[in-house]
């Protein structure tokens, strides 16, 4: 077995590999850029080597710099994680030439299956059903438009060397095909150093289901079930689960057998994933094979008890698989939510900055990858992360903060465990998608399992603007806040330096206002908690150990658990729960009466300004001062976290002033241009 491995990656996947290497008694070497000098993976590894400036194309994907770090450290093997150099055949060749083991598949398999154009041709030759498309290289935007018309809109424009949603666009007409081709080409060049583009038919209403395969160099191969990855935004997976609520055993076996056969056809040896789209009749079509460890691999580990990183290391060491297909048993249900530094209230635009608070829910005690789920109790909570409180989310890399996973014996129990875990996850200092993830976990379509890759586009066509909680939930929160307010009021009566012979009385009657509703309450407190009675005669029992200043309230309300994220505002609390962000005011009846008479403060008018929606770099300005623009016209392109975003005019107007130019670095809400 290897004594030392280098991890040619960063962030949560580097930390994930370190955990398994430590379990196996293998020393680890981290590499880091200037931006990652204080990163978590650097502190976790046994050694760390600096490799360059923050941009990935000057550090993490520069093969010569990584090879120099390998030589300096004396590492015998390299795990590439995902992204960066994980599917780069030249990197695998360089390792082979240096006598260093690549913890991944053989070079020929990477070349055959890692390239999306080549992999589709091989799949077609092997008799695998594939999506209609043009597999040749496309020279320019005009040719892209011509091919798109021949295939028929909508089409998917893809980077041949792409992955993780980078270099991918859906085009519904000629204009979008032209713009999408150029943006995909630019993103592909920046992210992968390879700007080749191909186009295929975009299949509407599909499910995205992938098969995890594991092969060794001795001709053995197994599939470890499937993962449902249909909930995506901009082709980036957001929620994954295993198994799929859609597949039956016959379809699972057919997809699995086909995936293993395809892997064996190219001499595959390592962990890999074969991706399919599946229609409503359970017909499945090969999309691509990812010749690396997937971001969402934890859900497979949770339902199988197989540590995929350990298996990759053992296969790279030349060991045969000790698992046969008959040994693979799918137990229970696992769900993964990807926590991103993206602001859902700003159309999921990147949000960078310092994590002033980062408190994930407690992981299941003693849980490690490879432990059979049933051995860890009725519910498992797992959080794979590469950040820490006080650290920064950098503009140079993917905005992922963590991957929160839950396992339970049933899908319903796994979803409920995820709801509680999301409510318990504390993140402050940046925009993040926790509210959106909570909303998805409560969405009827997700709960039923009846979702497609169009889920987010269909259910949130105008973007995400929070959640309107039902009456029952509002009552429970109102009761909890009334009880919490009483605790805070009692604390305030005990302030030192008060006047002699004066004692403030804390009243029993309070009006709780939230989500436009007033709840008149009366509190009957006792040493164990409080009973909160409402004006309609109903009541709820509230118990918990919350004290003023706590930012997480773990309560029991009406005999059911309630977890609230709590912030202080004047006259009440800022409460976040199940995707809702609420301002809750708790007032005496007289104060509530007066508050109803206060005028509402209106937000400032920004209708004549184009504001930068996220921190980023101006790629180009598409208009000039004095130019008339039409609704939907491209105004400028902003690049953030390796993704290009085209900002368009919301209405017809005339550009009066342009305040930024190509190459400028802008902050959130900085004015790019003004209109008459």
Which percent range describes the beta-strand content?
25-35%
The largest sheet, given as strand count, sense and whether it forms a barrel, is: 8 strands, antiparallel
Gross geometry:
globular
Q: Number of helix segments?
A: 17
Give the helix level as a range of percent: 25-40%
Count of beta strands: 39
Query: What distance separates the N and C termini?
Result: 69 Å
Question: Which keywords apply here?
Answer:
676 residues; alpha+beta
Question: Can you tell me about this structure?
Answer:
The protein is α+β, with helices and mostly antiparallel strands. The protein is 27% helix and 32% strand. The chain has 17 helices and 39 strands. The strands form 9 sheets. The protein has an 8-stranded antiparallel β-sheet with strand order 14-13-10-11-12-15-22-20. Strand 27 (539-544) and strand 28 (552-557) form a beta hairpin. The termini are far apart.
Question: Quick recap of the structure?
Answer:
This protein is α+β, with helices and mostly antiparallel strands. The protein has an eight-stranded antiparallel beta sheet. The protein has an eight-stranded antiparallel β-barrel with strand order 24-25-26-27-28-29-30-31, surrounded by four helices.
Write the layout of secondary structure elements.
Layout: E1 4-7, H1 11-23, E2 27-33, H2 40-44, E3 47-52, H3 63-73, E4 77-79, H4 89-97, E5 101-102, H5 107-114, H6 116-125, E6 133-134, H7 141-151, E7 155-159, E8 168-171, H8 174-192, E9 197-201, E10 207-215, E11 221-233, E12 236-242, H9 249-265, E13 270-278, E14 284-290, H10 297-304, H11 308-316, E15 333-340, E16 342-343, E17 349-350, E18 353-354, E19 357-359, E20 380-385, E21 392-393, E22 400-408, H12 411-424, E23 426-428, H13 434-441, H14 444-448, H15 455-459, H16 471-493, E24 509-514, E25 517-526, E26 529-534, E27 539-544, E28 552-557, E29 560-569, E30 572-577, E31 580-587, H17 589-595, E32 609-611, E33 616-621, E34 628-629, E35 634-640, E36 643-648, E37 653-658, E38 665-666, E39 671-675
Helix pairs in contact: 4-5, 5-6, 7-8, 12-13
